[in-house]
Design brief:
YbaK protein; alpha/beta; about 160 residues
């Protein structure tokens, strides 16, 4: 398994992390399926969502696998009046990642990033390593510090 940019960034930043590889297929790239494959609590597996805000453009939200993004709370957290999910076909152009392999780390640009406040309940959470079939486990506080992100009530 070759290193992803996410893993390289974590290593360069000297952030403690663990890599988890798993088999996947196109029908099972959602965060709940990933949690089952890596034997993790779905509450600790965070999916990365890409949105467009009416005031400040692209915003990134990381929320637990078992939840849905509350668009009103997301808009409030990101200081937008309204926010909407971007189209799946635009994910790669905006982030450099494909659906099912989108990580908040190592995107094409540094976008405002928000992590659901429930991440603070865990010593470590799982996020995509930037490709389908690979996750990384790390401290939510290390993630927030690395990305200059904020914890927020998002669900």
């Amino acid at each position: 398994m070759s290193k992803t940019n996410v893993i390289r960034i974590l290593e360069f930043s000297r952030i403690k992390h663990t890599v988890f590889n798993y088999e996947f297929n196109e029908d099972e790239i959602d965060a709940i399926s990933v949690a089952k494959k890596i034997y993790a609590e779905p509450e600790s597996v965070f999916k990365t969502l890409v949105t467009a805000g009416d005031k400040n453009g692209t915003n990134i939200f990381c929320i637990p696998a078992i939840t849905e993004l509350n668009l009103k709370k997301a808009a409030y957290a990101s200081q937008n009046k309204s926010i909407e999910m971007i189209k799946v076909k635009d994910i790669q152009q905006i982030t450099g990642y494909i659906r099912g392999g989108c990580s908040p780390i190592g995107m094409k640009k540094d976008y405002p990033t928000f992590v659901d406040e429930t991440a603070q309940l865990f010593s470590e959470i799982y996020i995509s390593a930037g490709i389908r079939g690979t996750q990384v486990k790390l401290s939510p506080f290390d993630l927030v510090n690395l990305l200059n992100a904020n914890f927020a009530d998002l669900t």
